[in-house]
Amino acid sequence: QIDIKSQNKDIKNLAKNTTLKYDNLEELINLALKQRAEIKKYQELIKTNKANIKNVKSQYYPTLDASASYTDKNSDDISSLETSQTAIMLNLKWNLFTGLSTSKDKKIAISNLSSTNKQLEQTKLQITQDITNAYFNMKQSFDSIKIGLLSLDLSIKNLNLANERYKAGLNDLLEVNDAKLEYTQAKNSLINSYYTHLSNNAQVKYELGIK
């Protein structure tokens, strides 16, 4: 959803009150690398991959299962009722590891971890590039506003001077019209710079992962 708001304030005052909200590129990059959802996604995937590797490695180690039971070997012999002879049996189970299958699973798990790490690094590089471009675009548009204000002030002075000269009969209407055109162009240029700067600010927020 896009909200459209009309600006009733004079563009010159709006431009004068414009500030450079983000002025440290390194801080912006660090903030983006902490907040972007892509980074968090790959970090969680890495945790999962490491857990898979640990799980696969555990398959290499056999498990020992011990169980105990007892029987009376003479329980059916009436003559042995007075003498209890019990045999205790200890059952040992050795679960052999899955061999080649486990080795294959381990290689796959390690490959997945390596792939995820590479994707994370590529994502970090892309985010760094995107935030850097957005930062310099924002800074350029901010500088354009300052230059636009100077140009507008100069065009206003030239227009006032042209009007005074025309009133005094020192020039013709053509010079006044040229001064008006210069003023209009300077004002339009400032308007464009101002709204371009707003757009660039929004782009920086987007690259930071700020909603």
Any overview of this molecule?
The protein is mainly alpha-helical. Helices cover 68% and strands 9% of the residues. It has 5 helices and 2 strands. The protein has a two-stranded antiparallel sheet. The longest helix has 68 residues, at 100-167. The chain is rod-shaped, with a radius of gyration of 39 Å. The two termini are 13 Å apart.
Number of helices: 5
Strand content: 5-15%
Q: What is the N-to-C succession of helices and strands?
A: HHHEEHH
Number of strands: 2
Specify Rg, calculated over alpha carbons: 39 Å
Name the helicity range. 55-70%
Described by strand count, sense and barrel closure, the largest sheet is: 2 strands, antiparallel
Largest sheet, order of strands side by side?
Answer: 1-2
Compact overview of the structure:
The protein has 211 residues and is mainly alpha-helical.
Descriptive tags:
2 strands; 9% strand; two-stranded antiparallel sheet; 211 residues; mainly alpha; disordered N terminus
SSE arrangement:
Blueprint: H1 11-16, H2 25-35, H3 37-58, E1 63-72, E2 86-95, H4 100-167, H5 173-208
Antiparallel strand pairs: 1-2
